[in-house]
């Protein structure tokens, strides 16, 4: 007798509930997740757990968002109280990966610094090379959640704790992302493409590469879709590694947040290149009206989309390092104080943990404002870095005795940072209590 589900195909691992005939289910879910391996694209990369069909000539797989969404809507009542085949499959993949990572011998990579280059995919110069990129030095031991929040966002020029994101280990397609993000755009990818991911505050950068030349995928903003790649250019010997974070080099201004993703921004720049002075001024206004240049950042000292202002980027990095980690469950959101958002505020204030408060920012004349949940206490040492140099220190980090919020790797860094930066910050926080 033919198997009643999945058009007669019997899955190797997942179980269907009665009423689900496997309509719209991707082929990958009929496989056994305990041994499954996705098909790489032409650059050898595996994206989104390897779930999607992959034409040989393409680097990215074929995401059929409509099909996946339709299936999700059609089956959500059937799997109201039990795991859907997709969920069963991803849970098994996650469990397998969790064990692999627990058994992985890092061979000291977490103690070694790396030179990485992060660039926007799809925004290219006339020669086809990335037009917007940053090169920096960072410890392999930094947690993914921390490098996203305190390094990648400020160094690239994106707003911290605004849109959702994930990392992809491109050698096997494993996805890592925030555990409880409340970013406005979080649903559009998580529920329709990637299903689920490993918690990024539990894993460090060094667990995602093995050798120089390895690449890690990073997608920022599920609405606009800014695809980045992080290339491991050099792994520095342990005896030359001190864990400090430093921007070495870069090119290109960060696009305006909300400027519709890499491909549209590439077209925007091409038009800008050949635009008349009047049109150039208009396009400049468009970039500079975006949140990362207006409400949450400074306009560049000189407007040139190909220039990289390393001084400004270093300032943003330093300011991020001397702050607590972003609270993902309270990502920045623009709020108008009318009925629907009151409900939203309420939902956020109910979910506040000890010490957390909702901060209002940039309250404007229309009485709208940005709100974000911020932490009042210190971060877990395992998920923190030295506020002065960026070294991930684990239990070795010492909390500032004044504010009890930020941490240092050594008394020397605490002293230097106190004089240069923290004296003002700390007093302010101290007096507030
Ligand atoms: Zn330090
Ligand atoms: Zn302090």
TrEMBL record:
PANTHER family: LEXA REPRESSOR-RELATED, TNPR PROTEIN. Gene3D superfamilies: 6.10.140.2220, MM3350-like. Residues 386-426 form the MYND-type domain. It holds the Pfam family PRiA4_ORF3. Keywords: Metal-binding, Zinc, Zinc-finger. This is MYND-type domain-containing protein. InterPro entries: MM3350-like_sf, Plasmid_pRiA4b_Orf3-like, Znf_MYND. GO terms for molecular function: zinc ion binding.
